[in-house]
Amino acid sequence: MRRFNPQWYNEFGTWLEYSESKDAVFCLHCYLFNCDHGDVRGGHDSFVSEGFSNWKEKGRLLKHVGKVGSIHNLCFSAAKDLMNQNQHIDIVMSNISNKAKQDYRIRLNGSIRCIRYLIRQGLAFQGHDETDASMNQGNFVELVKFLCESNEEINNVSLNNAPENLKMIAPSIQKDITHAAASLVTRAIISDIGNNFFSILVDEARDISIKEQMAIVLRYVNCNDDIIERFLGLVHVSDTTASSLKESIELIFAKNGLSLTKIRGQGYDGASNMSGQFSVLKSLILDENKSAYYVHCFAHQLQLALVACAKKVYALTDFFNFIPLVCNAVGASCKRADILREK
Q1: Residue 234 sits in the same domain as residue 264
Q2: Cα gap 78→171, rounded to integer Å
Q3: What confidence tens digit (pLDDT) does each residue in 42-52 have?
Q4: CA-to-CA distance for 121 and 144, rounded, in angstroms?
Q5: Residue at 60 is within a domain
Q6: Which of 216, 220, 289, 319 could cross-link with 198 by S-S, CB 3.0 to 4.6 Å?
Q7: pTM of the model
């Protein structure tokens, strides 16, 4: 097409205006209420000053409209308010503010619902490619899309219908909401313990990023006389000496309003820095609280007993020695694995 198509009036509504003298189209709303926003995306300037006449590029008309919060939509809102002479400016601004708050709350609740689901299921949030062109933008973004498809109220204010800086899907937003959820859960655990006594279960291990992490679990009896075990937190410890571990425990206790004087039991494995005889974690805590009795981890006790028995029974020793060899031989070949399944 090499000239203006009058059918575009029906397609693009009241904002499109055609100038016969310039043989170009303009945006009425942007022409009347244009402010210098320093943004020329979508050919904004051409629709205000010079006029748009590239008739082959019809898609530029849609690009000019843009998303929520674009210059065109701001000018459109200003024109709409001008036509409604009965509204006082204070009322208009108040209504806009209240509507924005309501939309923000709906959008935030949608993100929180998705994050709660992913946390409960232990699923990863982010994807390898979260660009608009990606076929899979990660669990969180895809779950938000699914929620929008099934909930019209959330769909009206989320993703493409939300302002660019308030979509509530950025990784930093995901982390903030996750930290807030963790804080609420920890607060509920501390409230359930109340002023009662409890025991601590502590273990340390190296994670995939080669950092030493110490996990702390609280064991207590609730108001219904049920024995409860709850994870309190994970602490990175650069130094695994007993004094450093005790200091880390004291820090997480102080953060959550707990005291070492309320401890009535300690449970660790057989590591020398945890449960040895002198200058170890159990001794340092016992120095401050004589009632914090130490109990060697039952699972570790069982493991030690089984290892001792296996060393005395040669048939068991041979069994455990051959198991890795068989697994490696079968696992390295699909044909061998099929033969083993058939037999």
Answers
A1: yes
A2: 34
A3: 455 677 877 88
A4: 16
A5: yes
A6: 220
A7: 0.62
CA distance 61 to 59: 5
Tokens representing 299 are 């699972």
The CA distance from 306 to 316, in Å, is: 10
Residue 194 region, left (φ>0) first, then alpha (ψ -120 to 50), else beta? Answer: left
**pLDDT digits over 244-255, tens only?**
888 999 999 999
Chain-centroid distance of CA 108 in Å reads 13
Shared-domain flag, residues 205 and 271: yes
Q: How far is the C-alpha of 202 from the C-alpha of 248, rounded, in Å? A: 11
Residue 148's alpha-carbon distances to 145, 159, 165, 222, 302, in angstroms, are: 5, 9, 18, 40, 51
Whether 26 and 43 have beta carbons less than 8 Å apart is answered as no
End-to-end Cα spacing for the chain: 73
Amino acid 174 reads: Q
- Give the domain range for residue 321: 313-342
- Domain stops at, among 145, 176, 207: 176
Whether residue 292 sits in one domain with residue 205: yes
Q: Residues 15, 75: one domain?
A: yes
Tell me whether residue 274 is exposed, middle or buried, using C-beta atoms within 10 angstroms of its C-beta: 0 to 12, 13 to 18, 19 or more: buried
74 and 119 together in one domain = no
